[in-house]
Design brief:
It is a single chain. The protein contains two helices and five strands, in the order ββααβββ. The protein is of the alpha+beta class and 136 residues long. The strands form two sheets. Strands 3-4-5 form a three-stranded antiparallel β-sheet, with helices on one face. The chain is globular.
């Protein structure tokens, strides 16, 4: 009988070992520690989506550059460009993540873009989703 074996990263087996920090930062302790690879992958993806290229000194190509799309005319062509760019950039910067679906919803009247995508982590076969809204 075949069954799926879940691979658990070694760092996830140590409950007192932090993997990273949560985004957004909190006002009380500023940094809230994250203890699982699944959670940290989600926060890394959110950080990537909120970053613009040339924002990081030693990694100038890191960042989705979504804020610049707010000032463009939002139509189906812009939405398709965002989908294509996100899929290719996420594959480049997150080789441990497989993007399952990307939905980009545009609201040109309010100059806002909503992005929802689902992904799975290749090493653990865990599935998660990220939603983010960019507005002017």
């Amino acid at each position: 009988m075949a069954y799926g074996v879940k691979i658990i990263p070694i760092v996830d087996t140590r409950p007192s070992t932090g993997v990273g920090v949560k985004i957004p930062f909190s006002s009380n302790g500023v940094f809230t520690t994250v203890y699982t690879t699944k959670e940290q992958t989600k926060y890394n993806l959110i950080n990537y989506l909120l970053s613009d290229p040339r924002e990081r000194p030693f990694s100038p190509t890191f960042g989705a550059g979504l804020r610049s799309k707010i000032f463009e005319y939002i139509n189906q062509k812009t939405v398709d460009e965002i989908k294509l760019a996100l899929t290719s950039k996420l594959e480049k910067f997150f080789p441990n993540v497989k993007v399952e679906s990307v939905d980009v919803l545009a609201n040109p009247d309010k100059n806002e873009i909503s992005i929802q995508f689902s992904y799975s982590i290749l090493s653990t076969s865990e599935f998660d989703e990220v939603s983010i809204q960019i507005q002017n």
